[in-house]
Amino acid sequence: MTDNLHGQPYLLYKNVQDLMNALHFPLLSLIILIPLVGAGLVGVCPKPHLAKTVALSAASLALLASVWLVHGFNPGDGGLQFVEQHAWIPSLHIEYLLGVDGISLLFLPLTALLTLLAIATSWNSPAHSRLYFILLLVLESATLGVFSALDLVLFFVFWQLTLPPLFFLIGLWGVGPLRRTAASKYLLVSLCGGLPLLLAFIILAVNHASQLNSVLLTDLSFSFTVLLETPLPDNVQSIVFVLLLIGFAAKAPLVPFHTWLPQVAMASPAPITALLISLKLGLYGLVRFAMTLTPAAAVEYDWVLGIIGAITLIYGALLSLQQSNLRRLLAFASISHVGLVLIGIAALNMQGIQGALLHLLNFTLVAGVLMLMAGFLQQRLGSTDLQQLGGLALVMPKLTGFYFLFMLASLGMPGGSVFPADILLLLGALQAHPSLGITALAGAVLSAACLLGFSRRAFLGTAVEPRFYYQDLRPRELGVLATALLLVLWGGLLPNSLLGINQLAAEAWLTRLLDQPGLEGDELADHTLGGVAGV
Question: Do 271 and 315 fall within a single domain?
């Protein structure tokens, strides 16, 4: 075969990315489009079972396409790859601009995988209609767009498009009388968080025009790559950084914007809660946009990030200790780990940022699977309250075994994928701010005490009633958990396979932050590029 555009054999191209670029193949657009097409096909399916099959197939295709994307990614290039750029609203210089680097790449297959698991675990519920699966696929498409968008307006559009599916999924298929209240609270908090984001994006675009000594609308720019090269005055940087921090904190969530997550965890379907606690869009936005577009302010206020992270970590862990419901416990544990990731980001060194990225990929998968298992218990027992649990190991040995494996992995036990992430985070925090490193260790101890105590009573304690009629894991549930466990073991035993992908991008990210004229001497020594390509 030959390339008609360049007259060269396809085999001459070094990798998949070169071939895709030569053919102008929009792989990222395809990955985003597959779930939307699947949602449309689900809508016209005449039978519910066929609709489920189509939804599962669409999610599987999106996963395969995202794995192909990872296969074609060149880890030796720390810049953006698979870039797609087309004019969208030319009068305002708003573009359809997509691309990925080592920081964003792995979030695409993670999103596709978690959506696939959510669909698989929703299979046997008679209450889940075609609309349920349509909304799940629309949510997947919007989330994939968030991780791919490089134009700020396009990013904001995808960001806001994640809200309607979640609002209806929680409000229509949630459990309990407060499901609509939880859905409304999530929507309102997210909408309010979107306002400072939009304002910050407008300020950045106007600043670009002002740097060109123009106030014309045609000189605005919302391109991430263009704005990276646009000078931003220090006082404006501080304003933009605070606005972006507030907007992304609402979605992360960070204290004090966290109150929606425990309510949603109790009211929404377990697969939806698993997606919410797994896909940390707020933390991704903080790393991708807030820190890089305002590097001087990010370095100046990194101590604020560290304090917010420490408060979130300890506050979430302490509240976890007080919970008697597994779903609320996992929600507060997730909030606590958001604080841990923020501490890693605030360290501003290679160990910290690589540990933070690795934690976002691995702990979120583990936490999502634990929430799915909480949903399995909800289906069987009608509750996840501790007073309704006890003695589960006798009647559900398979579920119990998987639960303890994932629970121990979430605590950073060696062999699990969270272990190398925690090691890097702790090393980064101790190197940059020893007090934050000690705080991270304290948070880990509190999390262990919380989960171990609850799990012992729930699975190994005395049963409150005979449980001989409760079913253990079904074949489909067993397949979901086994697949996730293999990935957790892979990430724990071969962490370099993940760290090698984001190393150069993380170095470029850190270099941009530390390459500031006023950052010298002892202050620069606190933050170092000395990192690791593995553990």
Answer: no
Q: Please enumerate in sequence order all residues whose Cβ is within 8 A of that of 130, keeping only pairs 6 or more positions apart, or say none.
A: 42, 43, 45, 48, 51
Domain limits at 306?
Answer: 301-520
Residue 265 sits in the same domain as residue 335:
no
Compute the average pLDDT of residues 427-445: 89
Number of structural domains (the chain) is 3
> Is residue 287 one of the residues assigned to a domain?
no
Q: Is residue 283 part of a domain?
A: no
Residue partners of 276: CB distance under 8 A and separation at least 6: 166, 261, 264, 265, 268
Taking the CB of residue 346, how many other CB atoms lie within 10 A of it?
28
CB 136 within 8 A of CB 169: yes
Are residues 277 and 261 in contact, defined by beta-carbon separation less than 8 angstroms?
A: yes
**CA–CA dist 370, 7 (Å, integer):** 52
Question: How far is 241 from 247, CA to CA, in rounded Å?
Answer: 10
pLDDT at 4 over 80: no
Q: Are residues 208 and 321 in the same domain?
A: no
- Inform me whether the pLDDT recorded for 46 exceeds 50: yes
The vertex-306 CA angle with 301 and 312, nearest 5°, equals 130
Q: How high is the pLDDT of residue 533?
A: 41
Residues 237 and 305 in one domain: no
DSSP lists the bridge partners of residue 89 as 94
Whether residues 338 and 480 fall in one domain: yes
The token duo for 271 is: 């697969």
Q: How confident is the model at residue 330 (pLDDT cuts 50, 70, 90)?
A: very high
pLDDT surpassing 50 at residue 459: yes
Average of per-residue pLDDT across 271-280? 88
Please tell me the distance from the alpha carbon of residue 437 to that of residue 78, in angstroms, as a whole number: 28
d(CA 252, CA 241): 16
pLDDT at 480 over 80: yes
Lowest-confidence region among 11-20, 191-200, 302-311:
11-20
What is the predicted pLDDT for the residue at 49? 83
Burial of 515 (0-12, 13-18, 19+ CB in 10 A): exposed
Which range is least confidently modeled, 24-28, 181-185, 519-523? 519-523
Is residue 530 within 8 Å of 510, Cβ to Cβ?
Answer: no
* Coil, strand or helix at 282: helix
Give DSSP secondary structure letters for 375-413: HHHHHHHS--BGGG---HHHH-HHHHHHHHHHHHHHTT-
Burial class (CB in 10 A: 0-12, 13-18, 19+), 351: buried
User: Using an 8 Å Cβ cutoff, are 413 and 366 in contact?
Assistant: no
- The answer to whether residue 222 sits within a structural domain is yes
427 and 369, same structural domain? yes
The confidence score (pLDDT) of residue 391 equals 79
**Number of Cβ atoms within 10 Å of the Cβ of 302:** 20
Residue 297 CB burial class (10 angstroms; 0-12, 13-18, ≥19): buried
**CA 115, CA 415: separation in Å to the nearest integer?**
25
Q: Residue 198 and residue 273: Cα distance in Å, rounded?
A: 26
What kind and span of H or E run contains 40? helix 27-44
